[in-house]
Amino acid sequence: MMISIIGAGYVGLILSACFAKMGHFIRLIESDSNKVDMINSGRSPIYEPGLDGLLSDHIGKNLIATTCYNSIRESDFIFICVGTPSMPNGDTDLTMVASASRSIGEAINESKEFYAIILKSTVPPGTTENLVIRKVLKYSSTSNLGFAMNPEFLREGHAIEDFMHPDRTVIGCNDTHTGDLIESLYKSFNAPIIRTNIMEAEMIKYASNAMLATKISFSNEIGNICKRLGIDVYNVMKGVGMDHRINPHFLDAGAGFGGSCFPKDIASLIRVAEKLGYDPSLLRSVVRVNEKQPKIIIELLHNKLGDIHGKSIAVLGLAFKKDTDDIRESRAISVIRELERGGARVKAYDPLASNNACKEISGLKCYSNAKDALKDADACIIMTEWPEFSELDEEFNLMKSKVIIEGRRISSCSDVEGICW
Ligand code: UGA
Question: Does the global pTM surpass 0.90?
Fold first, then answer.
């Protein structure tokens, strides 16, 4: 099949590389010409295990990146994968979705071919019908079109594996013909395909992320209570997660959830509910618990060190989770900002995310290994579950005082105190 994919962000890149691996012909359309050049040289603009390899295998063969929308006319499928960032009030900024829809309309104008136009970006329910379909039809005179919403469920760090082995594929479509065509793209995966209408598919994505975030905040709440009782939340949640109605995943208590998805999508869902006149009290609590966790780490530090002004604090881990260089909404960044507000001197280390963190926090002192960051520190806070942190032991002896707090359960060192264990 000939597939055009608009947007070389996280989702667009993974989709392009994986569909190319499945033998389809891909045009990846991206407005940033630097990104296009990089992709066409076989290198990924983002870090994701396995992505460079897939790009270099297929680029110039059945995968080409371009800034030009013209190739869309030869496509069977057009996927919109542009960013949908959060606005300060939590609303979703749909500017890029609108502009991609307009460009598609203009590019296919007057064509006699049939096109399936599919939104992948995470959007408030109603966006495909009220924005995408309207815009495309406004700028194109063809009506031989099908529209659908096909949400993605990819985790950073595991995106290729998640794409190739999905738990389910959701196809939200209001006409059977387009839905059947999209289904044919995914039929080789050994996974259930759920057919819904367009708005239900949009909501499935929001509700899935909200559910996962709720599990995390729930575990953190239970963990905060367990800590006061002097019991181990990991033993407790192990017992809880063995109930098949609950399952053991996403019950790891700690510093809370970050990343480009959960915080943004929950904020957006809260705004959707507010605009409908409904008070989403559970979702608000999920966010409140999440915002509390970094503050608890600072409280623990104060309990151990007293005033942190002028103290030197090693922060190990800056990425919002392991296996990524992404620091968006990372709990480590919240902790560092609190430390800096309190007048502490931060010595940071992350195996992948230091560059991104330095761009976010000007003047942040990053070290090239954990040992150097720990040397002479008054305290250490572990914020990302990088496996190499589980091996640290002797290195902690280099600290001025052995105050070690972890926001992710990773260390086996006996001197470590967990945020809620
Ligand atoms: C998340 C979802 O897991 C994907 O299914 C979804 O497609 C994606 O958002 C998206 O909407 O695009 P991702 O943001 O890559 O994926 O990261 P997760 O692995 O879900 O982790 C999110 C955060 O939750 C991390 O900060 C992680 O440390 C935290 N977390 C996760 C916990 O604190 N405890 C857990 O048990 C699990």
Answer: yes
